[in-house]
Design a protein that fits this description.
The chain has about 55 residues and is mainly alpha-helical. The protein has two helices and no strands. It is rod-shaped.
Amino acid sequence: MKLLFWRFIREEEGSTALEYGLIAAGLSIAIVTVLVQIAATFARLQASSAAAGN
């Protein structure tokens, strides 16, 4: 069992796919965060424009 565990720990095949998955997840979170901030800014600008009577 100990040998099986160490063989699993040393195995590197498939780790590239995992790394790409983590990179994709990080980029997705960053993109969503930026889009939420842009939407909030747009809503704030739209509200101030409506309040000004334009």
